[in-house]
Design a protein that fits this description.
- The chain is built from five helices and no strands.
- It is mainly alpha-helical and 134 residues long.
- It has a domain of 93 residues.
- The longest helix has 28 residues.
- The two termini are 32 Å apart.
């Protein structure tokens, strides 16, 4: 396995695990019994995606593709890229709902809450991942 394929797999694994639990919860109708289950899943989604973005950033740093020295800029890039993925996820939910395949989305307020929860998870994990290791 090449360096980049291994790093890409490491980056995807946390997000894949969150998606698996979300998909399993949908199949088992967990949302009917635990209506707030969606909120921690979106926070964990932000955590998982930001972990993946951090892995890719570290791989790029290791291969000297970039040399961002500012912790604040690194956190900003992780959070913005995670928010971008969260927006794509919400588009995915909208398309699936529009095609009447599954029922993912609620109101616009629910979508905004989902995006906010993902951002909070991303910000918290980005700060933790980029802290100085002593």
């Amino acid at each position: 396995m090449t360096f980049w394929s291994r790093k890409f797999l490491e980056a995807l694994l946390p997000a894949i695990l969150v998606y698996f639990f979300q998909f399993l919860a949908t199949l088992l109708n967990v949302y009917l019994y635990v209506p707030y289950y969606d909120t921690p899943m979106h926070v964990l989604g932000g955590v998982g995606i930001s972990m993946g973005m951090w892995h890719l950033g570290e791989a790029a740093r290791e291969k000297r593709f970039w040399s961002i020295r500012s912790r604040g800029m690194y956190i900003f890039l992780i959070v913005v890229s995670t928010i971008s993925v969260a927006v794509l996820w919400e588009w995915y939910e909208f398309i699936v709902d529009s095609l009447n395949l599954l029922r993912f989305q609620g109101t616009i307020g629910d979508t905004m809450k989902d995006l906010f929860c993902g951002m909070i998870g991303a910000l918290g994990m980005a700060i933790w991942l980029t802290k100085d290791k002593k």
